[in-house]
Design a protein that fits this description.
It is built from 8 helices and 9 strands. The protein is an alpha/beta fold. It binds guanosine-5'-triphosphate and magnesium ion (MG). The site of guanosine-5'-triphosphate has 20 residues, from β1, β2 and α3.
Length: 242
């Protein structure tokens, strides 16, 4: 890849998956990684440190000690990422659902957009090994979010995204309301309100084979409520015009 790319990977109990993902990312030229671990009880943080010792110039690790959460982890990771020299900042799950081989296509699309979503729900996008129940939940979540927030993207909940560095740096992270997964929807909502160009590139999403999902009841409840909160505050947290 011609551009310099920084990938933020939040981890919680991904000890078996992280080395495979990192190997895939290290095989891509001009890619660096920041792992943001939330004191995983399974020792993912130590695994990340060991990987970083193997590639000190390309892998950084953050060990969070404050309240756990995907959104909080991303906020910490992004704050660090925008301090580092790079052209594109990406977000990616650690559970091997997101293939590093899709990265060049996503990064290339940053030429014509501020935010590029690795999307399951555009032509060419696929989901492998998801049970029917999980497919329905994701489909429903996307319909619901689009209906409530009027977001245009087909896949508003994908965690595989690339941002033009300046667009990411313009996000008002300290005003975000989400702790967990709904952070992903909030970012998109704020980006759209700021007039950023959002585009989608198809990916093949593969269900995790190892480790456990962290999709808890609390996370689902937050995801159901947040779209309404965003609309109610009209994304004020993302609006400098107030
Ligand atoms: N740092 C951090 N990472 C988290 C937290 N919760 C989830 N993650 C990471 O976020 C990514 C997505 O989490 P998953 O559990 O795979 O969630 P999902 O992909 O929506 O659900 P599945 O389809 O069941 O895998 C993975 O890399 C997780 O390790 C958290 O509280 N803190
Ligand atoms: Mg997953």
């Amino acid at each position: 890849m011609a551009r310099s790319v920084l990938v933020i990977v939040p981890t919680f109990n991904e000890r078996a998956n992280l080395p495979v993902l990192v190997a895939g990312l290290m095989a891509q030229p001009n890619v660096r990684v920041i792992v943001v671990d939330d004191q995983s009880p399974d020792g993912t943080g130590d695994v990340a440190d060991a990987l970083a010792r193997g590639h000190p110039a390309r892998i950084g690790v953050m060990h969070r000690t404050e309240r756990r959460g995907l959104g909080r982890s991303y906020i910490d990771g992004i704050k660090r990422a925008i301090e580092e020299p790079c052209d594109v900042i990406c977000q990616m799950d650690a559970d091997l659902s997101h293939d590093p081989n899709h990265l060049p296509a996503l990064v290339a699309a940053v030429d014509r957009a501020d935010v590029v979503i690795g999307s399951r729900y555009v032509r060419g996008g696929k989901i492998v090994n998801w049970p029917r129940r999980r497919r329905l939940l994701s489909r429903f979540a996307n319909r619901y979010i689009r209906l409530v927030t009027r977001l245009n993207a087909r896949d508003c909940t994908s965690g595989y995204r690339c941002w033009r560095r300046e667009a990411m740096a313009a996000m008002p992270l300290d005003r975000f309301i989400s702790d967990g997964y709904s952070f992903l929807v909030e970012m998109l909502f704020v980006a759209e309100r700021r007039g950023f160009r959002i585009t989608e590139v198809p990916i093949t999403f593969v269900e995790r084979r190892l480790g456990e999902s962290k999709l808890s009841r609390a996370v689902i409840v937050e995801s159901a409520v947040t779209p309404w909160r965003l609309v109610a505050t009209r994304g004020m947290q993302g609006d400098d015009r107030r």
